[in-house]
Amino acid sequence: MRILPRTLVALTGCALAAAVFTAPAVAAAPSVPPAGATLRNRETGRCLIDNGSAATRTGPCTADTANQWDVIGPTTARQLRNRESGQCLTDYNRNVRTGPCTGDAAKKWTVSGPATARQYRNNGTGSCLTDYGSGVGSGPCTEAIASHWIVTN
What we know:
Helix content: 10-25%
Strand content: 25-35%
Number of domains: 1
Radius of gyration: 23 Å
Strand order of the largest sheet: 1-12
Structural class: mainly beta
């Protein structure tokens, strides 16, 4: 039996279409934090800012790049890199500052909770990023809203 070239092309096209439309769906990847996210403290309503000279503080939430953080890496070892300075958030014995982005545990944070109440637990100290009103530091990871952050972009 001889198949005409047009018939063969048509059959091949139908088989390809059937394979594409009957392929199993692939699960969507977990959502990735937005690039240039702002972290607004739930208690003070102020945003985390890289103040330059390795210092961090909270202040008014603006579109300035000092207020924006790229959240990089897996949920259990994220780095928060400031968009203006290019430095990463670091916990030096409860003194939260920025410094070069390295693999050091003090520069990695385990993130938990929804985008409206995130906690950032430092992998080196086990303490959570906290806005004390008088300054940013790290402290016990509790239900207190001073250690919860709203993530927006």
